[in-house]
Amino acid sequence: MPNLTTAQWIWVAAAAVVIGFSKMGLGGALTIIIPLLAVVFGGRESSGMVLPMIFIGDLMAISYYRRAADWGAIRRLMPWVVTGLAIGTFVGWVVDNGTFTMIIGVAVLLCAAVLVALEIGGGRTKPPGRIWFFALMGMTGGFTTMIGNAAGPVMTVYLMAMGMNKDGFVGTYAWFFMIINAMKMPLQLFLWRSIGAPELLMALAMLPLIAGGAALGAFVVKRIPEKPFRYTIIALTVIAGVRVFL
Predict the structure, then answer these.
(1) What pLDDT is recorded for position 197?
(2) By the 8 A CB rule, do 159 and 169 touch?
């Protein structure tokens, strides 16, 4: 397990709860904690610490929802996502830690801007389902998820453009990120070397907190009006993204 201070363990525990919550509640909650962890631990290090916990949350999500994904929508995006992952892997490999952390902040703020645009559009944003749109969404999603685990808003735009109903949206969203995060694990393990036995053991130790956050997310989302909750998520995401630059 990593040799952390008490304050750092508190941050890790908070991240575990938020990760579980985001997988069962609103994915935007994850973008709050990512830039804050980058400030506390460093960009590349925090990415390696949090990814195994996110993957555990993904497995919980697909187990809980048990809905079939729209595999056609996923297949159309995958070649471009792989390209974005490759670009993000290279950038994360060559830049120093300070630059890496700032890129996380930029990625999170851009995703927050996407969320704001969706709110202004009242959920009626319907980009055309053309090749350039798949390329833009796939590469942007691949890059932002590799650098900052912050591709949730990008995937939201894509699935809205596909005109999916609620069930299809939830199932496809959960399966997509489980697949993508599984692809990211060996990249961070062997190329970035940001994941090792300590990070994997820490993720297992955080399993009860991830599960607790997931249960909380499933409970809260059913009982709190969605719009005020989304506004809170957007505001906190902006604050967290700006914090990287202070």
Answers:
(1) 93
(2) yes
Question: Radius of gyration over alpha carbons of the chain, in Å?
Answer: 17
Cα gap 163→89, rounded to integer Å: 31
Query: Per-residue pLDDT tens for 149-191?
Result: 888 878 877 877 777 766 677 788 889 999 999 999 999 999 8
Tokens of 200: 């994997």
Alpha-carbon distance of 58 to 157, in angstroms, equals: 20
Checking 82-86 for CB contacts under 8 A at 24+ apart, the result is 82/142, 82/183, 83/138, 83/139, 83/142, 84/138, 84/139, 84/140, 84/141, 84/142, 84/143, 84/144, 84/145, 84/146, 85/142, 85/143, 85/145, 85/146, 85/180, 85/183, 85/184, 85/187, 86/142
DSSP secondary structure letter of residue 10: H
